Amino acid sequence: MSEAKTSLPVANGRVVRTAARRSRVIEFKVDGEIVPAWIGDTLLVAVLSHRGALSIHEFDGEPRAGFCLMGACQDCWVWLEDGTRLRACTTPVEPGLAVCTRPPTDGLCHA
Amino acid sequence: MTKPNRSDVAIIGGGLMGAWTAFFLRRNDRSVALIEKGSVGEQSSGVNFGNIRLQGRHPSQFPLSLRSQALWEDIEALIGERCEFAPTGHLYLALASEQVDKLVQGAHQAAVHGVEIEVLDGQAARARWPWLGSLVHGASFSARDATANPRLVTPAVVRAAKLLGAHVLEHARATKIEQLAPGFRISTDRGPIIECDTLVNCAGAWGAEIAAQFGEPVPLFAAGPPQFVTEPIPCIISPSVQSVDGTVIFRQVARGNVIVAGFPRGPTDPIANRAPVPPAKIIATMNRLAEVAPVLASAHVIRVWSGIEGYLPDMLPVIGRSGTTPGLLHAFGFCGHGFQLGPGVGLCLTELAIEGASRISLDAFSITRFSGSATTVDEKISKEFDAAIAARTGGSRIAVDRE
Amino acid sequence: MHKVVIVGAGPAGFAAAELLHVNGLIPTLVDEAATAGGQIYRRPAPDIELDMRRLLGRGHRRYQRFHARAGHLLAQIDYRPQTTAWAIFADRVWTLRDQIIEQVPFDALVLATGATDRTVPIPGWTLPGVVTLGGAQALLKGQGALIGRRVVFCGSSPLLYLAAKQFLAAGATVGAILDTTPFAAKVAAAPDLLRAPEVFADGLKSMARVRGAGVPIHHGVRLESFEGDGEVSAVRYLDRKGRAKSVDCDAVAFGFGLKPEAQLADLAGVPFRYDPTFRQWLPATDGDGRAGRRTYLAGDGCMIGGAQAAEISGSLAAAALLQDAGTPTHGIDRSALRRRLARLHRFQHGLSRAFTWPAGTLAGASDSLPICRCESVTAGEIRRAVGSVLGPIDINRVKALTRVGMGRCQGRFCALPAAELVAAAAARPLEAVGRLRGQAPVKPLPPTARVRDRS
User: Fold this and answer.
1) What domain count does chain C have?
2) B343-363, pLDDT tens digit by residue?
3) ipTM of this predicted complex?
4) Between A and C, how many residue pairs show a Cβ–Cβ distance under 8 A?
5) Which of B377, C169, C292, C455 has the most neighbouring CB atoms within 10 Å?
6) What is the three-class DSSP state of A110?
C-alpha cells in the first residue's frame, strides 16, 4: 500500500482515512480556509477530514456531522459561498468548491 | 333514545368560519353547538396558505375584509393566542410591463375603500427588497396585510369558544337535518341530537349539500392549488409575495421554510380527502420562484400537497341568510381567500343570528344570486384553473357576464 | 415493447434486471448512487486503495460476483446511475439528475429501493460522531474512512458484529459492543435462525472474531445516553444487572435493524399492512412481490431480508412481471426460489427476536429528548399534543400539531419512534396510531431543476 499520498496532516478531523488514494489531490475551501482533498472523496469526507462538524443546526444551534451517511437522513447538507446547497454524503468534492458550515448570509463563512 | 341537546344556535362545520361564529356567539351569551365530522380545522382551514390579505380583493369584500382585519390585529386579546399572526405586509409583483397597469388599478381601488397601497417601479422595489429578481417590473405593497399559521388558528379559536362554554362535538357527522319550524333538529352519526333555533351552514366544501337540501343549490366545486414547502433557510423575505399573473405565491415563515403556491388549481377529492399533485404542476412554479427570488434558488423543496377548497364560479363566497328557510344562515365557498375573512364572517353571522341584520352589507354574497338562470363566471376560472375544471364550470376561454 | 422501470440497483433491483434481460427485455434501471450494489455490495469510490477482500472476509466472494455480473449487464440495459427517483405519478417515474428532471413512462414498475437503519432516539443522538450502523459501513466501504478512532457499536442488530468485524479489519479500535437484547433471547431464537444455517454461521463467526480480538461485548444492556460536548465522547448504559456503566469513545455506530425505504411504494399507490412482528407498516405484496397495478416490489425496500433474500425476491418479482405480461419466462425455478425465500423470512423472524426493537423504552423517555432531529421536536411536545386532543389520535394529527416528520427527511428517522411514543402516551395499540402519509418529492428537490423532454 503506497504511503505518500495519505501522509497529509489531518487537523481537527472527525473522519479517519484508512485507505490511500491513487487520484489527484485537489484544493477546496472550508469556511474560507484552503484545505486538501482527493478526487473521489465525498464532500462529507473532505470536510470532516478537517473539521468536527458540517453545519450548525438551525433549530437547536448544535453542530451536526451527518447521521445515516447514505443520503436518507438529510442531516449533512452544507452551504457553498454562492448560496448553493449540497448534500455532503452523496456529493463528490470538486476543486475550488467553497464550503461554508454556516449560511453564507450570516457573514460568518470566512475564517 | 337520545335526548336532544338544545342550543340557540347549531353550526355545522368546525372549520375557520364555524369556529369564529361559535366564539362570537358565546361572547354574546348565546348557547351554541359546533358539529364537526372530523377534527376541527382539518380541511381547507388548516392547510391554506395563511395569507391575511387586504390587497387584491373583489371590491365588494372590502368592508368585510377591513372589519375582519381589525379583529385579526386584536387576536391575542380576543382568543388568548397569537397563532403566529405577523404583520408582514403583502407584495404584489408585476413580472412583465403589461402587468403594471393592473397593479396600479388595484392600488387605486383599494385606496378608495380605505386600504393604503404603495406602488413602486422595479428599481425601487429591488432597492427596498434586494432579494427580488430582475424580472420584476413593478410592485404594490400593502403594509397592513399579515400572515398567520392556519394549522394553529382554528383549534385555537375553538379552544377559546369552549372556554366560553361552546359545546363542541368532533368526529360527529350531521346525518339528518329536520326542520322543526321554528328551529331545526340535527342528528349525528355519533348519537347526539341537537335542536336549535338558528342553524349555520359552515360546512365548507360540503356546504352545497346542505344548501341543496333546503332548495337552494349552488354550483360549488372543489379544487386546490398545488402547494409546496422548502427546507428552512435563513430569514430573508419578510412580506407575503404574489405575482399578479398568478404564477407564484410565496411567503417565508419564522422558522425559515418558504411556503409556495402555484396555479393552475386542479381537481381535488374532498370525499377521499386526498389530492395528489401532478409533479409537472409544481416544477413550473419552482422555476418561477427561483427567477423571482434568486436567493431561493437552492432552497430545496421537501414536500408537496394540494389545498382542498370550495369554489364558486364568480369567485365570491356565499355568506348570509338562506333564501328559502327562516333561521338558516350560510357561510361557505370562500374560493381560497377565506382565511382573512374568518373573524369578520363570524361576527357578521352572530349579528344576523341575534339582531337579524349584519352591520356590514352581505348582499354581494347572497345565496340568492344563484337562483336565476345565468351565472357570472370570473375570468380567473379560465386563467387559474385546470382546463377541465374551467370547461365544467361553464368558463370557456372567455368570461361570461350576466345579462 | 414492454417498458419496465426498476428503481434501485442493489441486489434486488439488479436480479430483476438480469432476469428481464435474459427474457428479452431492456429495462430502465434508475439508481441514486454512482455505482451499483446498494448498501451490501457498495464499492469504493474510484481510485481508493481499499482492500475489500480483507474488509469483507467471506463476504468478498459474493461482492466480487455481483460486480462481475454488473459489469456485463449494465452496459446492455438502460442504466441510469446518479439518478434520483423522486415521484411516481400516472404511470411515470419522475427522476432528477444534475438539475435535469425527466419523466420515465412505464408499463410495469419494479421498486427495489432498499432500506435504512431503524434507530430509536437516545439522549445525545444528534451529537457529531453518532451515526447509524449502516452509515458507518457505508463510509468504510465507499470511502475507506472510519467515523472515528475509537468506536462503540450499540443497539441491537446482527450488523453490530459484522460492522465491528469490518472496522477491526480496517484497523479501528472498537471500544465495546453494547447489545440491548439479552443473550438468552438469542439462544431462544436459535431454532428460527437455523433456517438459514450459512447466514447464521457467518453471524456466529463475526461474533467470535470480535470477541477474539478482545472487544468487550455486553448483552441485555440499556442505553442511557451518548455523552459529549459538541461531539460524542462516551456512552453511558446500564448493564444487564442494572449497574451504571460508561465506555469512552469518539464515535458511536448504532441501530436496531432496518426499515424499508417505502416512500415511492406509497406514492405508487401500494397498500400498506401493519406487521406486528416488525412493529412497522410494510408495503403489502403477494408472495412474488406483486403490489397492485403494474407495480412489483423486491428486496429490503419491501421486507427486510438481507442480500440473498433480496436477490431471490428480485428474480421472483421480475418473473411475476413477465408472467403478467404474458411472456413465457425462462432462467428461473420459481418454486425453489420461493422455498428459499420462505426460509430466509423465517430466519428474519428469528432475527427480530434475537435482536429486538426496544419498543417500550420511549415510554420512559425524558420530555427533553429530541424525537425529530430535523425539526427538533421533543418527546414532551409530542406527549403534550397527544394530551391536547380529545378523541382518537393518530400520527398524522400529531404531525400537524407538532411538526414531527415535517423536516428534510420527511419522517424517515422519527416516524417509528414517534408512533411508539404516541401509542404509549395515548394508551392505544401501535397499529391504531397509523403511519405518516407519503408525499412527493421523496428527496429534496432544487427549485432550479428543469424538465427535459426526451421525446
Assistant:
1) 3
2) 999 999 999 999 999 999 999
3) 0.95
4) 148
5) B377
6) coil
